[in-house]
Specification:
Elements: E1 5-11, H1 14-23, E2 27-28, E3 37-41, E4 46-52, H2 53-60, E5 74-78, H3 82-94, E6 98-105, E7 109-115, E8 121-127
Parallel strand pairs: 1-4, 5-8
Antiparallel strand pairs: 2-3, 3-4, 6-7, 7-8
Length: 135
Amino acid sequence: MSIKIAVNLPVQALDRSVAFFTKLGFSVNPKLTSDTTAHLVLSEEISTILVAEELFSTISRRTVADAATRAEVIVQLQVGSRERVDELVDVAIGAGGQVANPPNDQGFLYGRSFTDLDGHQWDVFHFDLSEAPPE
């Protein structure tokens, strides 16, 4: 049986966050979207539920972390090529995201990272095990 993942992320301004992520090419599933949540489809196996902070605090019953100043989670996306890494991160930066860390280029592994409009960190990476150093 396959397992799918849905990551719930608190956001301050739902419409603004939806606009940001659709610029990255993620689609919105309208059947699971409301005025307080937006279901973003990243792939067949991965989705993100953007949740307005007010609702998120009732789901977790804990204080919502300020992702701009505290680490809560790092969402990593594995993509098919180095070019796709650059494309996705460049679009995120162009849409208002910020660079989170310098690029990580180990030859067989290449990655870049950004923070979204609410400060959540996203790492986008590609690896080619055929290029990895021998063990």
